[in-house]
Amino acid sequence: MRTSPLLEQLMDALRCLPGVGPKSAQRMAFSLLQRNRQGGLQLADVLGKAMTEIGHCRDCRTFTEEDVCAICDNPRRLENGQICVVESPADIMAVEATGQFSGRYFVLMGHLSPLDGIGPSDIGLDVLEYRLQNEPIAELILATNPTVEGEATAHFIAELCQAYQVPATRIAHGVPVGGELELVDGTTLSHSLAGRQKLY
Amino acid sequence: MRTSPLLEQLMDALRCLPGVGPKSAQRMAFSLLQRNRQGGLQLADVLGKAMTEIGHCRDCRTFTEEDVCAICDNPRRLENGQICVVESPADIMAVEATGQFSGRYFVLMGHLSPLDGIGPSDIGLDVLEYRLQNEPIAELILATNPTVEGEATAHFIAELCQAYQVPATRIAHGVPVGGELELVDGTTLSHSLAGRQKLY
Ligand SMILES: [Zn+2]
Ligand SMILES: [Zn+2]
Asked: Which of A25, A77, A120, B163 is the least crowded, having the fewest Cβ atoms under 10 Å away?
């Protein structure tokens, strides 16, 4: 729009959001300018802070602005000695929403993908190995996605568990094969947790 | 997500964008944090600036960070004496994209809607009336949306034109009745401009 270079910049910048094309970027920019400048300013402020301050939990690797996240820092989540391994922070939210799990998490932030050059240390398996070696872990629940890569990653971690004599389980295939964990409904995910199978 | 209050704030703040619910807000936040923090910082910066600095053109009311927008400020757009009246800045972009119009614009930023308490001065008709009175205007092209409110607004403005002896035309109904101007394809909009009818 020749009338405002700044508005053009805003529409361009909004396209860094997933699923936002030129038409929705325009609708978003106009909507904020016309009806919600306070909301826009608030978003600008929080977004800047979040991009700068949010890092990864030292223990579980999930997103947090603290050194250690609130779940890892909670002594009651340590009691049952369970650690649930997931691919992404969104999966933590999905598992938490079932109310069926009271242990801690470990977030891979991805999965093994040799063709893309993503190896064990890229998904934090060095950190996880250190924990397997040094912490009393009663059970490692492998809740990676039921995809080819997720399965391969789960089996790789199961072998790591075997090396350190830590019991490893895989969540049951109540979740649809080929799907994504964070899109599964709570009931299915509960069944899936309850029916987990011992791998080692 | 109990692990990061700042992340929760970010997901809340993203919902000020039209069409963004809890699931897409979460996907957006994770995507920026995991893959594009630079893009997120850039968006925060541009968004803050845009919300603060973008105002309305003194002459045509469209969005601009200048006092007068680049179209109103261009002497060549003054030559044919035409002013195209549209409901929103998005409509300017749609008309510009046809390449069929070289005059100036006037943006109502809405339409008359007595039931919602939106009267003539809320859509800048006092400013427009001042221009009708004081500028040599060859033709006012009424390009409000082909909706009930858009038609009513066009007829109200046509009466204003009659009072000041300024020729007013209405774009042809090549555009689908009940639709929104900014969603119409360029060819249809070109036909619609070419087939405009004299109202007074
Ligand atoms: Zn943690
Ligand atoms: Zn202007």
From this structure: B163
As a whole number of angstroms, the distance between CA B32 and CA B108 comes to 36
Q: What is the pLDDT of residues B53-107, one digit of tens each?
A: 999 999 999 999 999 999 999 999 999 999 999 999 989 988 998 888 999 999 9
Q: Is B170 helix (H, G, I), strand (E, B) or coil?
A: strand
Within 8 A of A95 by CB-CB distance, chain B residues are none
User: Given an 8 Å threshold on Cβ–Cβ distance, is A30 in contact with B2?
Assistant: no
pTM of the model: 0.79
Return the number of other C-beta atoms located less than 10 Å from residue B65's C-beta.
16
Give the residue from A6, A147, A131 showing the smallest Cα distance to A57. A131
Phi, psi (deg, nearest 5) at residue A63: -65, 130
Rounded Cα distance, A80 and A83, in Å: 9
ipTM above 0.85, yes or no: no
Which of B1, B2, B3 should be substituted to probe chain A, the one whose Cβ sees the most A Cβ atoms within 10 Å? B3
Summarised one tens digit per residue, pLDDT across range A107-119 is 999 999 999 999 9
Nearest to A37 among B36, B51, B93 (CB): B51
State the first-to-last Cα distance of chain A, in angstroms, to the nearest integer: 62
A22-35 helix and A5-14 helix, angle to the nearest 10 degrees = 120
CATH numbers and ranges of domains, chain A: 82-170 (3.40.1360.10)
Mutate to test the interface with A, among B11, B43, B95, B116 (most CBs of A within 10 A): B43
Which runs of E-coded beta strand occur in A133-178?
A: 139-142, 168-170
Cα A74 from Cα A56, distance rounded (Å): 17
Helix, strand, coil percentages for chain B (3-state, nearest 5): 50, 10, 40
